[in-house]
Amino acid sequence: MAGPLAVAGDVVVDALPYFDQGYDAPGVREAAAALVEEETRRYRPTKNYLSYLPTPDYSAFETEIMRNEFERLAARQPMELLSMKRYELPAPSSGQKNDITAWQESVNNSMAQLEHQAVRIENLELMSQHGSNAWKVYNDNLVQMIENAQKELQKLSWVALVSKNYEIERAIVQLEGEIKKMKQQQGDENKENIRQDF
After folding, report:
1. Nearest-5° angle of CA 69, CA 73, CA 74?
2. What pLDDT digit, counting tens, does each position of 143-165 carry?
3. Are residues 113 and 32 in the same domain?
4. What DSSP state is assigned to residue 51?
5. Closest C-alpha to 14, from 27, 29, 32, 2
6. Cα–Cα distance between 167 and 170 in angstroms, integer?
7. Is 90 a domain residue?
């Protein structure tokens, strides 16, 4: 049977219905119902039994992004899709076919896109050359950190064990002193009894 668990002050529950046996015996259900009835007479919960607690502030940890997202969900609006506009290379509109500045803007946009793609290619080449080495160094650092943490844990465990051993030794010395006192008291009582006999 499970150990007793104190609930609501003086009420003790020490039954596990999924483990304990004997609940089908005659009179057990009635006894349990009587205990429940007695408890409900002593404890009448109010409608709002949490009224003594302050009103919870559910927005305490919200960030601006979260707040905007919650508002979007409450309004049942769809999520904004990833904009691919910056990757497009539109030509000037039909009304601007003869406008040199419109064509210059298109050329500048295409050059920026070309440079962006060149940087991506460089990053991929660097990653293929040095990425595995960077991961190896990162993993070595993690292993070193784990070893340091384990050494620190062993030091702490050693200190705890030494402290515990010291406390045990102190308790032993104290108990030995008490035993010695008790033996002296018994010896004194025996001597006193022997004197009274003579």
Report:
1. 115
2. 999 999 999 888 888 888 888 88
3. no
4. T
5. 2
6. 5
7. no
